[in-house]
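Example for tutorial group B:
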């Protein structure tokens, strides 16, 4: 009788320990996923900040730089250059792949008219993405006009 009580007590204690370990592992896994998500979001924000001051896109009027200003002519040329290079497996796409990896960059003019440019598009195989939208000023040097735009950056896992 005492042996069966002792065995029953040991089994109950083992079950409690196993449930505790499973609960701890799930809690730790949840914490690690949250940290990984925060790291991805931080990377996306840092990349978006860097993109808004790219020398390939920035406005330069009389050799002075403007904050968060994108030149529309440079934007169109860079977009065409990267997209044609992607089709031909050329140098430009490979160069920007080292920096942008699996991401998508879209610049959209929202005022006074609506227009959109896809600068870089390499989604990879996953569809989950972290994205950030940055307001930018779009300058058209041909017409000497400014417009309001949004730069959207999606980074895929």
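The residue assignment follows.
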């Amino acid at each position: 009788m005492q042996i069966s009580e002792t065995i029953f007590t040991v089994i109950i204690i083992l079950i409690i320990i196993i449930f505790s370990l499973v609960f701890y592992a799930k809690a730790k896994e949840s914490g690690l996923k949250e940290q990984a998500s925060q790291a991805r979001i931080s990377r996306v924000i840092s990349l978006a900040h860097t993109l808004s001051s790219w020398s390939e896109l920035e406005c330069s009027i009389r050799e002075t730089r403007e904050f968060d200003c994108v030149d529309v002519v440079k934007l169109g040329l860079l977009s065409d250059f990267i997209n044609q290079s992607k089709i031909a497996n050329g140098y430009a796409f490979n160069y920007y792949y080292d920096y942008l990896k699996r991401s998508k960059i879209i610049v959209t003019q929202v005022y006074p008219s609506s227009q959109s440019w896809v600068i870089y598009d390499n989604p990879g195989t996953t569809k989950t993405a972290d994205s950030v939208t940055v307001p930018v000023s779009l300058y058209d040097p041909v017409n000497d006009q400014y417009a309001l735009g949004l730069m959207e950056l999606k980074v895929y896992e």
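The CA atoms of residues 55 and 70 lie 9 Å apart. Compare this with the pattern of hydrophobic and polar residues in the output above.
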